[in-house]
## 1
Amino acid sequence: MNSASDLLAALGRYTRFCLSATRAVPFLNVREMLHQAYVMGVGSLVVLLAVGAFSGAMLTVQGFASLRAFGTSELLGMFIALGGVREVFPLIGAGCVGAKVGSAVASEVATLKIGQQIDALEVMAVDPMRFLVAPRLVACIVVTPLLVGACLLAGLVSSYLIATLQLGVDQGVFVSRLLENISLRDLVSALVKALGFGMLTGTLACWHGYAADAGAASVGQASNRTVVQAMVTGGVLNLFVSNVFYGGLL
Amino acid sequence: MLDGLAGLGAAVRGMVASLGALVRFVAGVLRHGGLPPAGELVHQCMTLVRRCILPVTLVVVPMGALISLQGAALIQQFGVERLLAPLVAITVVRELAPGFAALMVAMQAGTALAAEIAVMRVREELDAYEVMAVDPLRHVVAPRLFAGVLIAPLLAVMAMGLAIMGSWLVAVGIRGFSSRAFLEGCLAAISTWDLAACLIKSAVFGAVLSSVACFEGYTAHRSAEGVGRASNRSVVSAILSILVANYVLNSLLYVGVVVPG
């Protein structure tokens, strides 16, 4: 009972935080936003490319092993298109952005908070929402789709390389099966997922960072909670977006 | 362009260097620390389970539902409904359960472990252990390291059941598949070898993520910022190393590292 009311209270605080952050978005500090977007994008690009490459490799090997049992390994391209492009690459890419960018933003804001630098901003009549939170939020929403796109591309390239070089699948068959099964709908669905994920990551990171009270331990706690909650809510969001785009649930 | 390449080169060099430091750290823990004290090991295992059980559940059930959703759409298109259960079971046992259980443990417990050890560093607790001639590698790091190896397979088995439950809910409750046929199909599709491979994979993932987390925490800088950076770096490197390990293990366990032609 107690934990249920705690949960509701936290949800209320989070909603209020999101509302005041959204109100600050039109007045955000553009320079700071661009700077944050640059730092997040450039800082995470290599990680996202590596994550995409290895999840593509993982998926290709696994798909090959399963399809070979049915004697249909020429369907591998279709498997990558349906499994990888629709679900695995956007999900793992977004989860990784949540982990990399989310925990960095959360611990940065939390460090500022416990160093009383947010209070200092307020004393100087600088609105921390406009200067600190809104730029990070918008940067996160802008950068997540770009990073997820990079992850997706890296995943496709690595599937192609693994399929042709390691597994010896015919490259013409692989590419044509792959391309004929990717539609605009898949890309739009990935974009929607990435935008939603960016929104969740940005708001959760700033909120948890802002809620840090005292001591080094609360910095770690902020980053921990951000990463986990972004992944959990993102997983549920992913299910709903997939349902909207591909039907089948209701 | 050249700047970009130089940056990439520096990043790769940094990764290799920290990989070397990580291996040396783990070797040091195994050599000097040895087997952890049993009481502390049990305590760490319980903590890990308590921390991770909810996040793993919350992530894995929607994933199971998702496989059923996408799989059913695909399979009804080909008119081979009876293949849904094997598809779900194989995906869950081979990839989803070990992979996402480890991912969530890395996100939840990995960041917490790194931050916890880093906070001990900030508060000079690790130095206090050394002053008292208690080896922190044996009493702080080793129990956490071994707990990861022991608990990740346990959570993967739990994730397996939960994910199949999630896909059962969609397949039977919404798509109208027969419950009996679905469950029998799942059981028939899972071989002992698949289960063994799932346990091996998740034990390796557990070892990887807990050593990364302990390493980042132990080598953290003594400041609040250092704590944040330790937990950030630990989750990112853990995810990346889990994916790399997954690819290597998949090649070894399922394909047998063939390079045909």
## 2
Amino acid sequence: MESGYIIREQSSLEKELEGYDRSSSFIDRVVDFFRRKSIFVLAYGTGCGAVEMPPTFTSRYDAERFGISGAATPRQADVIIVSGYLSYKTLRRVIRTYEQMSSPKYVIALGSCTINGGMYWDSYNTVKRLDLYLPVDVYANGCMPRPESILDAFIALQKRIEYGEEKGGWERYIENIDYYRENQRAVLGDDIHPAYEADWYSSGGAL
Amino acid sequence: MILQSLLAVVTAYLTGMLYYGIYRNITARFHKRIGPPVTQNIYDSFKLLFKKESTSYGWIFYMGPIVMATASILTLLFIPLFNDGEMEGVSRYGDLFVVLYLMAMGPLGNALAVGISANPFGAMGIGRGLTRMAGLELPFYLSLMALVYFSGSSDITQIMSAQEDMPNMMRYPLLFTASMISLTGFLGKSPFDVVGAPVEVYSGPASEFGGKFLGLLMSQSAIFTFAKLLLMVDLFWGGAGSLAELLLKSFILFIITVFIGIVYGRFKVHQAVDFLIKIPSAIAVAGILLHL
């Protein structure tokens, strides 16, 4: 069902970081330093990946060592983790949650389900490629990725922030909002709520 | 004077943030974790202040964190930093009553902003916060008013200078105990941390605040924490003669509340108020009767 859509070039996700120019201005670097050092995570437990997150954040793997801590609400979060398969019904909530977060914001997707559908590859009501609907910054692949992989994904994200990549996922989302909306509408219908947030994005933040 | 006040605010911010960093580390060790760097809270607050977007609900929403921050900074400025008159800033223009009034002002201003955001979890948090405050204030005010009565002055500098031979915490141990229990609640530690109870009401009053609003709230919370500790040091421990002494004394008081907070579970709202009205208030009343 999704094969009919334009599959966007994902080269930016596969770039090697070494070739990047670091942020040019000093202030940018300082801001990037704080962003890298402090990451508030909204763990959106959808699939089986939800069970890998508690050990990541508690005594066993202690993500707080890297400045990664849980956020209570989307308003306070920097990163949303989509942990595994998403039904279309849940996708609506995830989009709404993502749009409530404040920029700069990042998406980490766990597991093969968010990459190609995984074991739900032929399901009629499951998202096969999360990147069609939300701008994913880092994938942690596997079925399921263990807490080590999740920490690895966070460290990859911190590197991307450190190197001051010119286009974060949230910028791509705003720039290509029509593309994302088209994909979202194709599976969710026109009822993407709340309308004011959808309008805000569609107007390029001008409202 | 302005320079001294600015310096006081910067000191309070840095100290408060570092104390919270140490607090997070101690909590982590209790969980058998390593814990974040000590400077983590400074990173958090700066990152939040550098966020590009912050959802707002109009000017009253802006007022919330601003009133909170104003109240915290004013509270700090009206409390003398040292007992020898150094770095006094504007502190001699206010007394204990002004400080107590300002301490209650911040949460009320924030209640307004949370109300305008119409977030049910925020409203729930504010309801819990104000109810808890009614419980916290009773033993705190009882012991502080008794202190004012015994010292014969509401001027913090005079209360400080009256304890040169013996600090008030030794002279009036019951009043000190009662206000320490209240301080644990004022600093948001268990068992009185029901206001921002993470899994029950998300983060309570702060649910709807993101970006720079949350950054401002975090920064003012650090300043306010230091101000409360400073008040306790001044009133019960004879103040401090130097920065090192001040840091040591306030840190010891802070660490006491941290240890109380780590080992206790969380009271429900009515349990907290029930406890505060009965036990610490009774201790405070006993302290008053003992010394009359």
## 3
Amino acid sequence: MNKEQILQSFLEDELFIENGYLKPGEAKTFKWTDPRNNNLIKVLRLAIDGIVSNETEGITSRKINAQLNPKS
Amino acid sequence: MIIESIELHNFMCYSGENRFDFTEGMNVIIGDNNHGKSKLYDAFYWAMFDQCFDTGLKKWMPTRHFGTEIISDKAIYEADSGMVRAVVRVTFKNVDRDQAYIIERRLTAVKKENGTAADKESEETVLFKEFDFMQGKEVTNPAEIDRIKRNILPDNIRPYMWFQGEQVESIIDFSHSSSLTQAINVLSNITRYDQVRELALALEKSANDEYQRKARAQSKDQGRSEELEVRRRGLVERLELLEKEELKKQDVLGEADEATQRLMGQFEDASRMRDLDAKQRAVERSLDEVSDDEKRERIDLHKKMFTHQWVLKGTSHLLEEYNAKYSKYERTRLQMFAEAQAKLKAENLIKEEFQTRLPINVPEPMYVNQMLDDEKCLVCNRPAERDSEAWNSIKALLERTTAKLEELEPESLTKHDFSSDFKRIQQNGYAMERIIGRVDSDIKSTFQKLKRLEKRRKGYSEDLNKVTEEMNSMKAGSSLDPTQAKNIVNELQAKQDLIKRFQTELGRTEKDIDVLKEKVKAIDKEMSGLVSGEMPAYLEEKKRVLEEFAIVAKSTRDRVFDKLVRQLEAEANKHYQEMMQGNQGVRGIIRLVESTKGNYTPRLTDENGNPLGQLNTGNIILIKLATIMAIISARQGSRDTDLYTLITDAPMSVFGEDYTIGFCKTVSRVYRQSIIMSKEFYKNETLRRELMVSPDIKRGKVYVITPSIADADRTNRNALTTLIKALN
């Protein structure tokens, strides 16, 4: 499974439709490089990327926090 | 990569030079117990991983654990003092590239007069042949050797490709969520989802902490906020503990549930056997009792000759005869008495007559005495000299005065008088008359009782024979004995009780968790209420995003896991159905049912999902084998079944011969190459013929191995070697 397939499997969660982040059926064709400005999807991408590239949990956490904290 | 050959030199029971060549398809090594199948399996494992299987410890142990046991006893025995060596060489061939890897392992021992000592470590040589026709080039870089070995057999796949029959149970342990997770992980990398979930949970927690800190900093009532935070922390700690406890309880329940399933499969047999055993014991007890009664009654039979006067049986006529004789005796006696009395009377009459001639006391005694003294009769005046007849006659006159009439004494009638004895005998006879009258009926009732006892004994004896026969046939058709059967019934009861108890406890824990969560929520609400002004928007957003991340991570992991379980289930069913083909028994469909969170239990159902009775051990093993095959064959986007060789020792030993051919067909269809050690084909000629001719089995090489000296004729292993015969 590549990163995109893993991401797609997360995006298939009902929450994305319920909260209006994705339209039905969109998850299956979602591209890794999709430029959509959604924090949850961005966080997922960082998490998957970190795990696939064998990053430590600390580094991935820092990247995610940096993504969600205000830019200084 | 396929295994082209294995060469064994003085390895365990393979004394001297031995070689097996293999091809694609299913290669089979046929041999009975103790013929060297497991040692061949050991040889593969030893060459690759420097370990052999300790059957006592039931685990793989390094070379140093075995020492000289690795080297053939014959080789050691026959060697002159000096070096003895065991060598195993396995050749792996990459058919597509015409390349080969040769892995050779050696163990050297030195034989001296006082014994043989093996090196602590074995030596390994790995050769790489870029083209099959070329000379092998030694690989010396340890990292490269590791890479080659992982390429030949990756670590995560190893348990499902190289295994022994007796390990099947533990390779897939449905009772532990980790066991199935591990298998699922081979199927697809579920650990990545686990890692995302862990990360999401950690981030959610830290975002919450950050939010709480900020909320406290902006609190209208710092003291209250601090107090709430302390309480919250305490609650969260308890919550974490309870969640861990919940997981443990779920594992225990899962384990108990699988054990229950396993036991339920045996319960029917076990319960019947236990009942039969109890019945057998009861019949044995009754038989003992009735036999004792009968024995006692038979012994009493002899005693009753005297205690119940049976000795008098048929003597009533004697009594009559005796009475007749006694009456005659009495009559005779009375007659004699009468006669004697008459005689006496007559004599007395005579006496009386004498007395009438001369009255008694005339002459008076003083005159008689005077006459005796004077020796002269004063009546006739004649002399009567002393002691003369006349003198004695005078003296008689004196005695006449004291003479009385005699009376008849009955005793004097006969010489011996038994009259009273005869009388007593007669009286005794009368007393016994009633007893003699009862003897016949007493004997009759006693014999009737004996007959009844004998009949009961025979009945119990027949019952016992029947029960014993039933028990023996049950034992023959089952792997259980009565003690095991009893244990199974008891264990099942205990497991069911445990499930009941843990379900209650789990329910309580879940309830406690919900209560704690509500409390935490209430504290969070109160803390939010204390915040003055607005919380920073980024923090609100971060908290929300990470909460959603945690939700998505958890549910996705569960969804993907469940999907993989279904995929595994579908693939396992495919193999299971194939293996069951040709078997008359109920086939059913395997369903992996989630008994508790993360724990799956296999169930056999019909097409509509209705359970098909309980699973027996054979079924469970077949399901596990099907699952093991599924783990490898269902790997997405891989050609694992083409890339790696299945090597398994006695995988079919735990299920019936009915499934053997089905298993072979499935294996030869699923795996490009397999090497199977089996005893099933050794004795069963029909199976062997089917193996050799079946068009549905893609055969590789088939060998029969036998020891040079039969097990029974072996006093030591000093001459033991293994004979290898190729059947094709």
